[in-house]
Amino acid sequence: MTKSRLRLFVLSFFLIISLKPLQSAEMVDPIKVDWSFKGLTGTFDRASLQRGFQVYKEVCASCHSMQYLSYRNLGEPGGPEFSEQEVKAIAASFEIEDGPDAQGEMFTRPGRPSDKFKSPYPNVQAATAANGGAYPPDMSVLVKARKGGANYIYSVLVGYEDPPPGVTLDDGVYYNKYMVGNKIKMPNNLMDGLVEYADGTESTVDQMAKDVTTFLAWAAEPELEERHKTGVKVIIYLILLTILVYLSMKKIWSRIDSEV
Amino acid sequence: MSEQEYTPTSKAGKWFNDRLPLLTLGKHLTDYPTPKNLNYWWTFGGILTFCLITQIVTGIVLAMHYVAHADLAFASVEHIMRDVNYGWLIRYIHSNGASMFFLAVYIHIFRSLFYGSYKSPREVIWIIGLMIYLLMMAAAFMGYVLPWGQMSFWGATVITNLFSAIPLVGDSITTWLWGAYSVDNPTLNRFFSLHYLIPFLILGLVVLHIWALHVPGNNNPVGIDIKKPSKDTVPFHPYITIKDAFALLVFMIIFAGFVFFTPNVLGHSDNYIPANPLVTPAHIVPEWYLLPFYAILRSVPDKLGGVILMFSAIFILFVLPWLDTSKVRSAVFRPIYRQFFWILVIDVLMLGYVGAMPAEGVYLVLARVGTIYYFLHFIVVMPVVGYLEKTDPIPMSISEPVLSGGAEPSLARKVNDKV
User: Fold this and answer.
1) Going from the N-terminus, what domains does chain A have, and what CATH number goes with each?
2) What is the ipTM of this complex?
3) What is the 3-state secondary structure (H, E, C) of chain B?
4) Domain B32-284 classified CATH 2.70.50.60?
5) Which residue of chain B has the CA closest to A239?
6) pLDDT tens sequence across B127-167
7) Which of A144, A145, A222 faces B82 most closely, judged by CB atoms?
8) What does pTM read for this prediction?
9) pLDDT, tens only, B393-402
10) A4: distance to nearest CA of chain B, Å?
């Protein structure tokens, strides 16, 4: 009786869930990529992160800010893990505004690892105005801020197509198979051979899209590797403790004529 | 009760206990006679206490780093996630902790519904519990506003706008709640203040909840009054403490699974987009634990009607002890009510599901059917079934599960199977 009720229960629940496809089907499911950082013990591909940073720096950074990251993050464990010298050099390649000094004047100086990533525009309004009325979103947490996460970002990067017949696009609007609503104001910026990877990897569109998405996934969750590692330890510890407590419980309850 | 006779063995203990009988209280808590047949659904009281303390402790640490300002809140959360030592862990425990808290409280409430724990003489425990639940919803809602993401902002806008449905004074009340003419910095500030206050109110109510529980003692799966202490009871410590500890650990494994491996699955991705009053998200949805009420709200075409119905859905629970006419507590012995109980569970789950979907087409129909059934269950089914139902024989005690003569040895087992 209990079983049949349970079955009824489960059945009706799945019946309800299965109604979902009736929902509007305007969005194409993003491409599923087998990311190295997925799964319980997933970690980032170090080389891919470094290449991804290069793509970000040479392509994305001219419009997109990443204001919550600091240059020092690039050298921290679990990230691209550039060496200390490399991080210093990367930071120093940016002119950062600082001040006011003793005279009350703002001044610029070479960046330091403790500086936040330099934004391409002084504020959101300037960024919006310079990009045809569409604000290029800050990319610090972009992967967490989009349904579908890394798969979605990757899919949009490789999802540019000619619009299907009947779809007319305004100037400065592009057709993208995976973008919500299919219309995107970001042009297709990736083309084969666009960047020259320091490690000699061939920079195909697919490769660059994967690398930069990996970089963005790390930027959104810089704690991911530590989280996974700690998580495995915590769960193992909890399971062992649970077993010990279970055995203690059985022992204690054996004193009386009742089951636990 | 045995505490009257309790004398601490040490001289210092006696001196202190004569002035403030804390040791007597401790003795009462450890000796507290508990029905020995409590099943694992009864471990959620302890689990909920753990959840509350976890939320308070992690919340206090988060408040040390969080900035309640419309321009800085989002950035301060990212500061916690990136720069504060183990900030990501503390925040993910806190945000997933809210979900785990509600998961546990829903199990706790439905356990009470199944075993009739809300019935005489435990009405006051039930009502205090509902007050805790209301405060939990308020605290969770305000907490969700604090990161100042898109869902924070628009969720706050939708919920506070509900009050504008009140005739005549609605708009004034909404403005008063906001402290501005829209959801803005003053709103965020007061929500933070209240979000910090409410957990301590809950803590106070939890003390009353447990106090009220210790007057009649625990209900149990058989639902009968038991003599305390007797061979039907065990002292709370070590029997119940160890069992609660075991259940809590299993719960913590699931909790840790969310925190470490899918920390954002229960949240909405839009909340990682900073709040923008000029851009409305495509679908504004509350956190999962509020979805059934959201579905009820949206099932009514009239705004005021929806608000009234949503609040009624909660407040009807306050009179539940008087709507239930059955003399038998436990659904184990109520074959008809038992079926309706499970229909209610499915109904609430369905309402939760359609609450997450756009309010149109088949979802709107389902929401309306679910809402009507929700109220029918309490207003019609509970009183009527209580009168008409022929209940199964009830055992005299936990140790002697059979009522009389007509030996039914399977009954004891049956009781265990049910639970």
Assistant:
1) 26-69+116-231 (1.10.760.10)
2) 0.91
3) CHHHHCCCCCHHHHHHHHHCCHHHHHHHHHHCEEECCCCHHHHHHHHHHHHHHHHHHHHHHHHHHCCCCCCCHHHHHHHHHHCCCCHHHHHHHHHHHHHHHHHHHHHHHHHHHHHCCCCCCCHHHHHHHHHHHHHHHHHHHHHHHCCCEHHHHHHHHHHHHHHHHCCCCHHHHHHHHHCCCCCCHHHHHHHHHHHHHHHHHHHHHHHHHHHHHHCCCCCCCCCCCCCCCCCCEEEHHHHHHHHHHHHHHHHHHHHHHHHHHCCCCCCCHHHHCECCCCCCCCCCCCCHHHHHHHHHHHHCCCHHHHHHHHHHHHHHHHHHHHHCCCCCCCHHHCHHHHHHHHHHHHHHHHHHHHHCCCCCHHHHHHHHHHHHHHHHHHHHHHHHHHHHCCCCCCCCCCCCCCCCCCCCCHHHHHHHHHC
4) no
5) B253
6) 999 999 999 999 999 999 999 999 999 999 999 999 999 99
7) A222
8) 0.92
9) 998 888 765 4
10) 12
